[in-house]
Amino acid sequence: MALEIIESCVNCWACLPLCPNKAIYEAAPHFLIDADKCTECTGDFAEAQCVAICPIEGAILDELGVAMNPPGSLTGIPPERWAAAKAEIAAR
Amino acid sequence: MDLPVITPEAPNAGGCSAGSCGSTADQMGGMSAEVRAKVQDHPCYSEDAHHYFARMHVAVAPACNIQCHYCNRKYDCANESRPGVVSEVLTPNQAVKKTLAVAATIPQMTVLGIAGPGDPLANLERTFETFRQLALTAPDIKLCVSTNGLALPANVDELAKYNIEHVTITINCVDPDVGAKIYPWIFWQNRRVYGREAAAILIEQQQKGLEMLVARGILVKVNSVLIPGVNDEHLKEVSKIVKAKGAFLHNVMPLIAEAEHGTFYGIMGQRSPNSAELKALQDSCEGDMNMMRHCRQCRADAVGLLGEDRGDEFTMDKVEAMEIDYEAAMAARAELRARVTAELEDKRQKAHAAKSAPAVQVIQFQPRAAKPAGRPVLMAVAAKGGLVAIHFGHAKEFLVYEASAAGAKFVGHRKADAYCSGDEICGESEMSGESVLERTIRALEGCEVVLCARIGIEPWGKLEAAGIQPNGEHAMEPNEDAVMAVWNEMLAAGKLASKSVAKCA
Prior knowledge:
The structure holds two protein chains of two kinds.
Chain A (H helix, E strand, L loop, with lengths): L3 E2 L18 E2 L6 E2 L15 H5 L6 E2 L17 H12 L2
Antiparallel strand pairs in A: 1-4, 2-3
Chain B lengths: L22 H7 L3 H7 L14 E4 L8 E2 L24 H14 L3 E6 L9 H14 L4 E6 L4 H10 L4 E5 L5 H4 L5 E4 L2 E4 H21 L3 E8 L7 H11 L4 E6 L9 H4 L7 H12 L16 E2 L11 H6 L4 H31 L20 E5 L1 E2 L2 E2 L8 E8 L2 E9 L20 H8 L5 E3 L5 H9 L3 E3 L7 H14 L13
Parallel strand pairs in B: 1-3, 3-4, 4-5, 5-8, 8-9, 11-16, 16-17
Antiparallel strand pairs in B: 1-10, 2-6, 6-7, 11-14, 12-13, 14-15
Helix pairs in contact in B: 3-4, 3-12, 5-7
């Protein structure tokens, strides 16, 4: 049972000091979680702390590879609006 | 009772010199000596000071504990200039090195702020380690911090410990229903809290933090982002409340929202306010509160005088290569500061004397009808250092003054070129087909005159066609003097009788 940080991480440091297991460490090109230390905060907090503060949708996955903060859940931007805006900008 | 009147214009029409007058002269005049001493060399707290003194932000604080709809946490663009954007995040040690390098190269440097790119108080160790080291190595540099306020009550004592005299809190609302439209979530007591509940907690902490800072004698500036249709009317109430609680200055800034910034507001098509809307709101808050008009909405790693970013000169690789004599640098700063402070004090005294001196002005004998009732006129100035010193085509921004019988009042600034000219994602739109000159003319909407040191024939013609009178006759004169000279010419020429030309396309 462990969470994973992937490449969309922006290295903002928010999660690192919150981890009760000190499982998160600075690395290049982005922060990583030591799977051996991560408990998903079970027994410590109601919510996994890194997941609860991470501002980037999709940057943290559970052990099945599912995004803990799926698209639209943090910014409030519906994914289809985001896709449409990106297409519009690319077409300029 | 038609007595001869000696000077029909208001007494302060000729009483101000370079730098500033209007709201700022009044603002400074009404301040205690203690408060004045705290702000007279802080460019973000004193409009006077920003002509002479520089500040820098060190980007040591990447983490944030809230999400705002005008912010995209992924953004990092060298070509953009707006809050929350940086080129490189620094460690506290790097930040200290950079600060000392800048303070040695730019003796006008008086202030070091931590403003992000996240929230300084969500990065306590990094923020306080930077302050701790700088308090030792550059004790003459003022330290300040800009925060969303969520973690303020818990950290006010720590801030006071580092002798922080200035704190800026961004307060966009005092009503959780309004807040729910601005903040999608906050991180609070180990969980992510959403919507109205989140906004209510944030507002409570901001207000508590404000009160605690004021109680400790720390000067508080309140920043608010004007979001049309969301908090525009509401900000008047915000202004009243923060004033009542002892905030020293209110800075209402326009929302920046473009789809290419990837923010909620940008993507969802929330519009930004135009210059007239911003000014109208600032004007309506002004009766209650000192309003800041000279904010440039700078980056979280800005360096130099406001509106003149020199960050490129101080990337970490360049800083590492610099050889610095710290003692000599501090002496140079002290010398410059003493000189400018004396100059400003002298100017303030003169302005004060000009206001109170002429007892010959027996205004009550003056028949009202005879008083020349010139309407106020907005004029843009291509300025540097408080003087009409920039060629029209070289101006990156224009300072806008409202000239009237009461004098020249600084009311804001207009950016002349798009702040982003980089790659495709943040590049300017080619499809609009708008030239830089056309954009500049559009940016000057509402202004009837533009003063500059020089100007070419082509822009001259286009400005005239757009109803904006170019004027190059006051080069190197202080902004306020030049603006009032032009206004008095317009008055004498009978151009200020009606309000018909108040807006030009």
